Amino acid sequence: MEHATIHINTSPERYGNWLREICQFTQNQFKSDEQLVFINAWNEWAEGCHLEPDKRWGYAYLEATRNAMIKALEQNKTFMPLSMSYYFHEHLYLKRKNILCNIFKIKSLKSDSAFLIDYSKVIQYLYVNNIGIFDYQNETPLYIKNDHVVELKNRKDIATLYDLTFAEMTSDIFSFVLLQFNKSEHTTACIDTIQSMNDKRIRIIVVDNCSSLQHRKVILKQYKDDPYIKLIFNKKNQGFSRGCNIGYHYARNVFNSRFIAVINNDTLIKDHQFINKTLQIFNEWTFSIMGPDIEVPEGRHENPLNDYIFSIFDFNHLLQIRKKEKEHFLQNKHAQFKSFGTSSYHKDFIINPILQGAMLIFSPVFILTNENAFDEHSFLYGEEYILAVKAFIEGDLLLYTNKIQIFHKEGVSTSQLKLSKKMMFGYESSIHACKHCMKMLEPNASFLNNSNVFVIQPHDIVKARDPMKQHVLLDLLFCQGGIHGGGEYGKAIFKAIAARQKECENIDLWVAMNPNLSIDSWVLDLLRINQIKVLHTTGFQDIIQWVNSELFHVFYTPAIVVYTSGYEYQKTIGTTLNFTCQKTRIIGTLLDIRDFEIASIGNKLLPYRKLVQCLPEANCNEIELKQLISKEKEKARQLKDMYSEICQSKSIEKLITISNYTYRSILTHFPYIRNKLEMLYAPMKDRPSPMPLNHFNIDFEHITYALILNASRMEKNAISAAMAFDEIFSLDSHPFDQNFFVIFTGLHSLKEITNKKLKRKRRFICLPYLPSEQIEFLYKNMEFLVCASINEGFCYPPVEAMRYHKTSIVSDLTSFPEICGDAAIYCNPYDIQSIMKAILEVAGQKIPTEVIQKHYAYIKNKQQNDLEVLINKILEYTFRSTDKV
């Protein structure tokens, strides 16, 4: 081979850099239909030229290929990025994608047409009502009406589609709806700024929400003869949502408005180009609802409330925060209303955020299909959350822009309420809004719908049951609705027993799940491929009823504690365990008794949390702190009774716990269950390939970071680690450069967990709860992990970090020394200086790779062996039950 090309010192990193550059070159030099890159080769092993995974590099070349393509797409000006919200609501993205594929009669949607997903509602409306024709030619989506053909290549084309179809149906009226409750002087000031635009398209509707006679007279006298202003007087206060809807109805149905801006009466619009800018942005984006940059007197920017639509998990997190704040307010009359979310107000545009309600601009796309602007479930506060979720589910495009600004005096109407009444309105409305949003999202998060999984309704159990087989019921309900260690443990058990089922022809495996709660796609794949029966359940009480019916030979649950009536971890204490079966054998994992252990050390833990300014302890005086300690003592007593109920249950055949530490702890308090209790290490969790966090605007290529996971959970003790880092960053000399950060997951802001004002707060990055793929990415690219937890039954994160040969800083308490061995650096979680010392030690010298590899191999082998023992035990009890059921 005279002209052969030979590359030496190749690596996945160099290959990825080359591929990214060649993709960019191709984009710059060729037309879109000629932008092809061929890679040599998939599996030319003999030539040393392959992408296929191997022992040396694993999946690194494939990951480099994916990352290079993502970078190339992001830098391609014609590529339309998806809304960040789709990362948290993938089911909606897939649902809309499938709808569009059906409408255009194509198998898949190309990436440069992905922006159409944001307009699925208007496209579906036209399609269902036979308005025009949708087609797909030369890899381009088309809309055809009469003799007009619109190529749908970018967002502007959607505006063309809309004008072609609906322009003659609306006027050019731009209406403003103002809701007034007293404070008429602010209403007149707001109207003055609107009228100063001197635009004949403007109409104004003032809805007075039962103000005092004095304020009604002011606006009646000033505007009753103005033909461009409509005054509506409510006989009683209708609240925000209903009051605004009254004005929206008039603007929509009487004025036939093209745009409707619902604004607070204490806002000022100083930009005379407000309407023209709105029209220009609509022609570029074809939004349904838009929110501008909203500035308040102290310089804070209110919009957006969050950069993306919260997931069910986020809403539940916010719900718990508001409940705690409400309880604290009722007890101490101390008002808190912590901000929750990430607001990038400086950005030009954000797709599908949660918009703040001081001004919302509804476009003709929204007005056409919506009789109401707001859901009237809320009276005051929380309406923005409900509006955002409803619009997002239905396929409306929400848009934030800083190209338009308004000024908001803030709180004028609500300032007339007494503080106690205002705060209770805020807490109760926010709690209600969170619950309502979760209720709306749950049916749309159904991962079992259209997945070809064999779902059985409870009344069909007997009919679906083969009397010639042994029946095993496995609890997957505990594993749904969010990512947590116990749930990952349960899914690992399911994966192993599903694999073994193939070898056992006489065993029929059933799982109990809620179709409206999410679960990993690989779980659904296993259910479908193995034809495993899925029992449709709405709660743990359903499962208890089925187990007590004696229709199953064995029932296994990865968390026996959730079957005590009313139990919810760290929230409510369970009471009775209502299993009464005598034939069905129950095997349950008692992961740990952590909540009991934590409550038992309340006299040590709570004063420490107050010292480091953790919430809610930081807001307590000495008397209140003593009351909290007393409550923890009583809580410990009740939890001990609950665990005693589990240990003494005659229906439970076997209890499994997950570490030597938890085994010893359980026997210390309940020594009489020695013969029933067995220790088997928690299995290795399913490990997906890392997925970059491109949508969080963090330049991972140019920063280094330490990682702290699940920071919102009290037992993780994240604030102690944060304080230790903050002290180090404040030293005159420290080993971290200016591009080193600390990343927390499970938080939108450190204000959720502390009152402490950190001196170097720019160093701390908060991220919400993330999918497993993105956690893997954080593991792989971090400098080190910090787990200063006060209690862990089996500490998964340090073990997962070992996979990437990463050093972990861990507590010297509970299960950490047993699980981490010599592959971690230890600290006292109650001592900031100890945590600082560990951080500086890691910064100076990390644990050698060979030490981490050796310990990881030991733990992994132990996990695999113990998993086999557990699966054998479940199968053994199944066959021993032949004569019982």
Spans of at least 5 consecutive residues whose pLDDT stays below 50 are 77-82
Helix/strand/pairing category? alpha/beta
On the 0 to 100 scale, the average pLDDT is 85
Task: Write down the CATH topology of the largest domain.
Answer: Spore Coat Polysaccharide Biosynthesis Protein SpsA, Chain A
- The H-level CATH homologous superfamily of the largest domain, spelled out, is Spore Coat Polysaccharide Biosynthesis Protein SpsA, Chain A
Helical content, roughly?
A: 40-55%
According to DSSP, the number of beta strands is 28
Span between termini: 73 Å
Cα-atom radius of gyration: 30 Å
Assign the CATH architecture of the largest domain. Answer: Alpha-Beta Complex
